[in-house]
């Protein structure tokens, strides 16, 4: 297909902005202390996770409450393969984690993505809860005691690993969804599935593909997280609040947009850490999440990104997706 | 344009053949033993009172519903029971009674989305020619949700055209639109039929039916009650009783 004219002023400004952000993120560790670096590493992780959830929730329009399962699959795959009896190196564990998450996503997404609205959300939630409970009783997951991983106490390594993974996720999603046929397919099925089918789009296949892609990215971050924290247990990597945060971050930043989830992820994570450092725990964080959801849906349905980008997408989008619940 | 098998595709087969198709919903017979064959470049009107089974017949032909009995053939290929997406890829395309646009996408993206399963390299070129034909270039960057009802009808019709299909099913495509938009659609149908595209048109606008349809099929309570050209149909007592007499 013929491409649009390149190097318009808008594109140049956008490229300069992205370049500035990339440079800033690259040199950031040189100017911050270790504590702040950990917060920045977490922010990158949550931005990537929000980006991953946005593929299926924002672009395909299917609200998944089961993404914590994929985060856990990634974390446990890495943790198990790095145990002393196997002794795999960290990078070797990433591929099996991604492949396993894709296989599970296809197995679960195949039947459940034929469900619509609340039924899909409930099915994914039940699936995640099932895996969580399994992880608490299985031997190879360490049960409720969890698993320890070999410690690698290099904060710079994890910052840059998260940065690369996050950047790769956003670039991949941008190329795949904003610049390819797949993007038209997925957005078409979100807006009107029967109409998309009438155009020859095999919607069931596209839905499963989007679920698998989303699961793979989520698992990747789960793997890195496990190595970063050096210890995991079922609730730390499969707890429902992991998915809850992903959902709220995307809603806050901008559902179905490229950069909105990054914005939402970074802002909410910084808020989370601020509350933790100020009040000593994050119990108060949960009601804050609830209030944010309500406020965003009521007053900023296109998310914070709409304040920056300006362009309002259809008002129908958030009601169309959330209305399915 | 299709990834589906076209082994049987040949000029000797009509682009669309509906053979003794029936469809029941519980105790209601929506379509009752209906047959129809349309040649390349032909415009066939399907008329009848509300609830007569016209839209159900379209759904059966396009794959939205599966017939209980009978066959649907496209270019001689038996597509009965195929999923909608697969039937669409054999070259059939439809509009809906209520426009089913992708409301959160621009007009440009709506049209490009229609081309994703076809010749993608020519998608932009076909989109531009469709925009020009339907005179909607000025709204190309508007969201579909921002369009008027008439413009939405045009974009949905445009989406069908971009696919470069062999058979187009139009379900009340001019209902409630401004006369200028109605004329744009009529001109486009006349232009496209000359390229060999077959049209099946559900309409209540008798002036339009008279102007563009080569022949008509009248349905009432799921059955075909009359077939023929406009004048024949207009003077048919069964039709007058079932449809025209109620106007």
TrEMBL record, chain A:
**This protein's record includes keyword Transmembrane helix:** yes
> InterPro entries in the record, alphabetically?
ABC_transp_permease, LivM-like
This protein's UniProt keywords:
Cell membrane, Membrane, Transmembrane, Transmembrane helix
Q: Where are the transmembrane segments?
A: 12-32, 38-56, 88-110, 117-137, 157-177, 211-228, 248-271, 283-309
Compartments reported by the entry: Cell inner membrane
Topology versus the membrane: Multi-pass membrane protein
What protein does this entry describe? Branched-chain amino acid ABC transporter permease
Tell me the organism: Marinobacter azerbaijanicus
Automatic annotation (TrEMBL), chain B:
* GO MF term list: ATP binding
Q: Per the UniProt record, which residue ranges are transmembrane?
A: none
Question: What InterPro entries does the record tag this protein with?
Answer: AAA+_ATPase (IPR003593), ABC_AA/LPS_Transport (IPR051120), ABC_transporter-like_ATP-bd (IPR003439), P-loop_NTPase (IPR027417)
Q: Which Gene3D superfamilies match?
A: P-loop containing nucleotide triphosphate hydrolases (3.40.50.300)
Keyword field contains Transport: yes
Stored SMART domains? AAA (SM00382)
**ABC transporter domain span:** 16-246
Domain of life of the source: Bacteria
Q: Which UniProt keywords apply?
A: ATP-binding, Nucleotide-binding, Transport
**What Pfam families does the database record attribute to this sequence?**
ABC_tran (PF00005)
Q: PANTHER family, alphabetically? A: CONSERVED COMPONENT OF ABC TRANSPORTER FOR NATURAL AMINO ACIDS (PTHR45772:SF9), CONSERVED COMPONENT OF ABC TRANSPORTER FOR NATURAL AMINO ACIDS-RELATED (PTHR45772)
Q: What is this protein called?
A: ABC transporter ATP-binding protein
